[in-house]
Design goal:
Blueprint: E1 3-6, E2 12-15, H1 20-32, E3 35-38, E4 45-48, H2 57-62, E5 67-74, E6 80-87, E7 102-109, E8 127-131, H3 146-150, H4 160-167, E9 171-176, H5 210-217, E10 223-228, H6 234-239, E11 243-246, E12 266-271, H7 274-284, E13 297-301, H8 310-327, E14 332-335, H9 337-344, H10 362-396, H11 404-407, H12 417-435, E15 439-444, H13 457-477, E16 480-489, E17 492-500, H14 505-528, H15 540-555, H16 559-572, H17 577-589, H18 593-606, H19 611-623, H20 627-640, H21 645-659
Helix pairs in contact: 7-14, 8-14, 9-10, 10-12, 10-13, 15-16, 16-17, 17-18, 17-19, 18-19, 19-20, 19-21, 20-21
Length: 660
C-alpha cells in the first residue's frame, strides 16, 4: 500500500512500507549515489549528485538518462520516513547550493495531528537537520568518514533525540556534514565538498557540528541538531552567527549517537530564532522544571574577555546594555573566573601543564593558568575516551584515510586521566556553587578573530588554544551554555555566551528568549549610532591587566610601550583616572609635555583628589613655562597632602625661578 500526493508541480511523492532487506538495499543506493536537496523557500526537490554534482531537479528531469528512486521506511513509534533520491553521472560540477551543509537528504515525517481539543504537536511546521553521528533506522551513520560507512551496518533504531523531535511535529530533512569522527573544530572535512560559512564566506564555519550550523545560518532549516564534546556546537554557532546551545551533560539521552567521549558528549542544537531554540528545549528537556523565571544575577567574567580585541569588547557593551534592559541594571556583577577556579580547586595545584598554578606571576597569570589547566585536562579526557571507543576500529580499518590529528588522540597517556577526572569533579562542584539557581555567567564564546580559510596552521592553533580555554569551562563542569550572536567586528561575527548551572537548561533558554529581542534592538541602535564610545562598558579586569603591563614597561624605561599599554587600559575603561595619570607620567618621561598636561587634566576631571595627577601636570606646566598654573597645581597637591615633599620642592623651585 502507498499514498500518492502531488507536490504542486506534477511530481508525485510516494511513501512505501519496505521490508528490512529492501530497506538495506535502497540505503546502499542512497549512500553510493546522489541525494536530494529541499529548497528553503518552496520545498522543491533539488539534487546533489555525488562528487560530480552539477545541477538541480529540473536538469535531471530534462535528461533522458536520469534515474530517480522513491523509497519510504516505516519507523517504530509511528514515524514515517521517506527519502527521494536523484542521481546521474556528471562531468562538471557547480558550486554547492546548500553551502556543503548536507551529506544525505531524507525525510522523517511526524505523526498525524491529534484530534481537537488536544493541542497540535508543539513543533508542527518546523524543519530540522541532524549531524551525521545521529542514527536513523535503516540508514548507515557516516560519522564524518566514508570508510566508517563502508564498515558499519545500517542503524537498527533512530536516535532518541531525533525521534522525540519528530514525534513532537518537526520534519527532519537530512544529515549534515561533520568533522572526521568529531575530532576537529575547524569544520573542514576533505572527504566531502567544502563547507562554506554563510555568515562570512572567507572564514571557517567551525566544527565538528559545522554542517548543522551552516544549514541554520543559510536558512535551509528552522533548527538543527549537533553534538558538543568540547565546543562542537558553541564554536560553529559563534562563527556562523546563529544561536547554539550545549545542553547540560546527562540530561538528554545520547542513545543512538556515535560517541566521542561519553563523559563530555552532549546533544545541542542551533536556531536563528530564540523562540525556536526554546521550543526545542521544552521538547527535549520536558522532564526539567525551571524554578526561576528571571535571572537575579549575571556575572561578567572580565578575565575571559581579555581573549578579545578592544573593538570586540565594544560589541560586548551592547550585550551588557541589553542584559540591563532585559533583566535590570542591578543584576550585573563582575568576576575573575580564572582566579575563582584557582582559589576553589585544589586539583589545579598539580603540575598537569607546563605552567604550574603557584601565584608567582601574579593573579592574572594565575587565573589564566587555571583555565589552561582545565582545558588541558579536558583534552586528556576527550582523547582517552575517544581511544577507548574507537582505537580498535581505526587499527582494523588500516587508518588509510584518517588524518594525523585523529590518530594523535590514540597517543594520549593514561597517566593523567585520574588527575583530569579530579579536576572535572571539582569543576562541577565549583560551578554549582557559583551559579546557584538564579545566576547566569557571561563569557565570550570563542577567542577572536576567527581564522580565515586556508590560514596558516599557527594561526589556527592559536585560535583553537584560546577558544578551548574558554569552551572547557562548561565542558568540564557539565553546565549548559548558549552562544548568542552580538553583531560583527571587522566583517566577522562576534558572540558571547550565557551559562547556567547543570540542569537549569530551561531557565537558561527562557532567559535567552527574553534577552534576544532586546539585544536585536540594541544592535540596531548601536549600528545606527555615530557615538560608539558612548556605548562602551568598562572592562575593569582587562583594563587592570593592561595597566600592569604598562607599569612593567615603565619600570624598564620602555616608555613608548608603557604609553601603548596605558592606552589599551583606557580603551577598556576610560573612566579611570589612574590610567590617564600613568600615561601622563610616561609622556613626561619622553618630554611630551603637552600630552602629559592633557592626560593629567583628564585624570583630575575624573578624580579631584588625585595628587599624582596634580604633581605631574604641575611638572608638565613648569616645563612648558606656564609657571602660574604650575604653582597652582603644586599648592593644590599640598592641600590634599600637606607633607608632600615633591609639591613643597616644586613651590620652592618656582619661587626661586620667579623671584630669585
Amino acid at each position: 500500500m502507498f499514498s500518492k500526493e502531488s507536490n504542486g508541480k506534477g511530481i508525485a511523492s510516494k511513501t512505501y512500507a519496505l521490508s528490512s532487506p529492501t530497506s538495506r538495499l535502497n540505503n546502499e543506493v542512497l549512500n553510493d549515489s546522489a541525494s536530494i536537496r529541499r529548497s528553503a523557500a518552496g520545498g522543491d526537490v533539488q539534487i546533489h549528485g555525488g562528487s560530480e554534482d552539477e545541477g538541480w531537479y529540473s536538469t535531471i528531469m530534462r535528461s533522458s538518462n536520469s534515474l530517480w528512486v522513491i523509497l519510504g521506511i516505516s519507523l517504530a513509534g509511528g514515524i514515517a520516513a521517506s527519502a527521494i533520491i536523484f542521481f546521474r553521472s556528471r562531468r562538471h560540477r557547480q558550486t554547492s547550493k546548500d553551502f556543503g551543509a548536507f551529506v544525505k537528504y531524507l525525510e522523517l515525517l511526524p505523526p498525524p495531528q491529534p484530534a481537537p481539543p488536544i493541542a497540535p504537536h508543539p513543533l508542527t511546521g518546523l524543519t530540522f537537520a541532524i549531524k551525521d553521528n545521529f542514527d536513523v533506522e535503516s540508514f548507515i551513520t557516516g560519522f564524518g568518514l566514508p570508510d566508517w560507512e563502508k564498515t558499519h551496518e545500517p542503524a537498527s533504531f533512530t536516535a532518541h533525540a531525533v525521534e522525540t523531535l519528530v514525534q513532537a511535529g518537526a520534519t527532519c530533512i537530512g544529515k549534515t556534514q561533520m568533522d572526521i569522527m568529531g575530532c576537529s573544530l575547524s569544520g573542514q572535512n576533505t572527504h566531502y565538498e567544502p563547507l562554506i560559512n554563510p555568515a562570512t564566506t572567507v572564514h571557517i564555519p567551525g566544527g565538528s557540528s559545522g554542517g548543522s550550523a551552516v544549514a541554520v545560518s543559510a536558512g535551509l532549516v528552522d533548527f538543527a541538531l549537533g553534538t558538543d564534546t568540547n565546543g562542537d556546537v558553541r564554536l560553529p554557532a559563534a562563527l556562523c552567527e546563529v544561536l547554539g546551545i550545549r545542553s547540560s551533560h546527562g540530561f538528554i539521552p545520547c542513545t543512538g549517537v556515535v560517541p566521542v567521549a561519553k563523559s563530555l558528549d552532549t546533544v545541542g542544537w542551533f536556531a536563528k530564532d530564540s523562540k525556536v531554540l526554546y521550543k526545542v528545549g521544552q521538547v527535549l528537556l520536558r522532564s526539567q522544571v525551571s524554578e526561576v523565571n528571571r535571572p537575579k544575577r549575571v556575572l561578567v567574567a572580565d578575565d575571559c574577555f581579555r581573549f578579545l580585541s578592544v573593538s570586540e569588547n565594544r560589541c560586548l557593551s551592547v550585550a551588557i546594555n541589553a542584559i540591563e534592559k532585559a533583566y535590570g541594571r542591578q543584576t550585573i556583577s563582575h568576576i575573575k573566573l580564572g582566579e575563582y577556579f584557582a582559589s576553589k580547586m585544589s586539583g589545579l595545584k598539580t603540575s598537569l601543564v607546563s605552567f604550574p598554578v603557584d601565584g608567582e606571576k601574579g593573579k592574572a597569570e594565575r587565573g589564566f593558568t587555571a583555565l589552561r589547566s582545565l582545558s588541558d585536562a579536558c583534552r586528556v579526557l576527550q582523547c582517552h575516551q575517544f581511544k577507548l571507543n574507537h582505537e580498535d576500529w581505526i587499527h582494523e580499518s588500516l587508518a588509510a584515510n584518517i588524518p594525523d590529528h585523529v590518530k594523535s588522540t590514540l597517543e594520549t597517556s593514561s597517566e593523567l586521566v585520574s588527575e583530569s577526572l579530579t579536576l572535572k569533579n571539582e569543576a562541577c562542584s565549583v560551578m554549582a556553587e557559583l551559579l546557584m539557581n538564579d545566576t547566569l555567567l557571561l563569557i565570550p564564546t570563542v577567542a577572536s578573530p576567527p581564522p580565515k580559510l586556508r590560514s596558516k596552521s599557527s594561526i589556527w592553533a592559536d585560535f583553537e588554544e584560546k577558544s578551548l580555554t574558554l569552551l572547557c569551562v562548561v565542558s568540564m563542569s557539565g553546565c549548559c551554555q548558549v552562544s548568542i550572536p552580538v553583531g560583527r567586528i571587522n566583517g566577522y561575527p562576534s558572540a558571547v555566551s550565557l551559562i547556567a548551572k547543570q540542569g537549569a537548561d530551561l531557565f537558561l533558554l527562557s532567559g535567552v528568549d527574553k534577552l534576544f529581542p532586546v539585544l536585536q534592538k540594541e544592535l540596531e541602535t548601536h549600528a545606527s549610532s555615530d557615538h560608539e564610545d558612548d556605548q562602551r562598558i568598562p572592562m575593569p579586569e582587562a583594563a587592570e591587566a593592561a595597566k600592569e603591563k604598562g607599569n612593567e614597561a615603565f619600570r624598564k624605561k620602555d616608555f613608548k610601550s608603557a604609553i601603548s599599554s596605558y592606552s589599551e587600559a583606557i580603551e577598556y575603561d576610560d573612566g579611570n583616572a589612574t590610567y590617564y595619570s600613568n600615561r601622563g607620567a610616561a609622556y613626561l618621561a619622553l618630554s611630551n609635555f603637552h600630552s602629559a598636561e592633557k592626560d593629567c587634566t583628564r585624570a583630575i576631571d575624573l578624580d579631584k583628589k588625585n595628587v599624582k595627577a596634580f604633581l605631574r601636570r604641575a611638572t608638565a606646566r613648569e616645563s612648558l613655562g606656564s609657571y602660574k598654573e604650575a604653582d597652582e597645581d603644586f599648592r593644590q597637591a599640598l592641600v590634599l597632602e600637606p607633607t608632600n615633599k615633591v609639591a613643597a620642592d616644586g613651590l620652592r623651585r618656582l619661587k626661586k625661578l620667579l623671584f630669585g
